């Protein structure tokens, strides 16, 4: 049957610019910054807008991950494929997470952002960071591993713990593989549910500009631009280092695998602006999973790599940890030998996994690292507390881009990447972004209802 194309809606590319999500979020960020700067009390009072939007997104993350992984694994048909994806994903995560730590260490030694501050550690107010230090102490590697196992099968969804949901989803998906053809009715049901869940994601994303506006107004209103100026060397060094890591290192990985980091960033521009506005990469997790599948990555790979990467592939957080630790050492005139810096890096490799998924993970992992390397005063974290929120945005963006690259690369390694879809998506010609599904005929089983337009 042929469709009457004359009656179909205007393609996404022909929409007025003001209807694109990325433009709306950008305007919201600018408006929030102006409100926060000129009316700081009003800006602080707008915090609930950002908090409410992030809560809305977190509400839908668990079902998105569960349904994507279960239907993806069921589609694999064999357990061999599951082990292959997980093995390759963790090999990628370990390599580039370690490389990010080394980059932060090298840049701190070359630039010396904390030199000349001459801060006496005895004059620092350690009480300001005591709460983070306590959380870091409580978050051991063994405790982290044990926490992956939920109390009950449904408690993972109630608590919203990403790794617990991932654990339950993998078990459930494997069980469907073992059941075989008899599991088809369940798989079909989950396919239908995934359509509904991604439609909810599409609805929630329409509130993204409001959430970005409130979150950014609060950040500027509470901390002010002046707090950034006072520690401009650290903030500037961190942003520049993260940019170089994305463009040079991840860019080289992208080029080697046959796509452009700049086209990928352009493809994800709406999500990146949302992450910038909310300082949370979780706010764009559902949309990232949806867009990676549109870009030709197999659903099973997306379902395994993206949620796992949110806990184990934190490039931005790792750059921040070694860079901030050496900044504190330099600012307090604490000399660190090469051996001590290597110890710092090794501890950071473990602590970055131990606090994965914890709210404020960047600051907590830094506290955990410094507590194990007592040469650097933990109280020195008070120096960067005021600008941590601004660095959190860069951490989140770097983590987000790193996970997008990881998903495409692992998909290619697995032979689970549709190059035509990838090229079309990155060139802006993806039909997945053309028009809302609700305006067309009923969607076929393989179509994601979230395709209505994240951007």
UniProtKB/TrEMBL annotation:
InterPro entries: C4_dicarb_transport, Na-dicarboxylate_symporter, Na-dicarboxylate_symporter_CS, Na:dicarbo_symporter_sf
TM stretches of this protein: 21-39, 59-79, 91-111, 162-179, 200-225, 231-259, 342-364, 370-387
Membrane topology: Multi-pass membrane protein
Keywords, in A-Z order: Cell membrane, Membrane, Symport, Transmembrane, Transmembrane helix, Transport
Superkingdom of the organism of origin: Bacteria
Any one GO BP annotation for this protein: L-aspartate transmembrane transport
GO molecular function, one term: fumarate transmembrane transporter activity
Free-text function comment from the UniProt entry: Responsible for the transport of dicarboxylates such as succinate, fumarate, and malate across the membrane.
NCBIfam families for this protein: PRK01663.1, PRK13027.1
Family according to the record: Belongs to the dicarboxylate/amino acid:cation symporter (DAACS) (TC 2.A.23) family.
Protein name per its UniProtKB record: C4-dicarboxylate transport protein
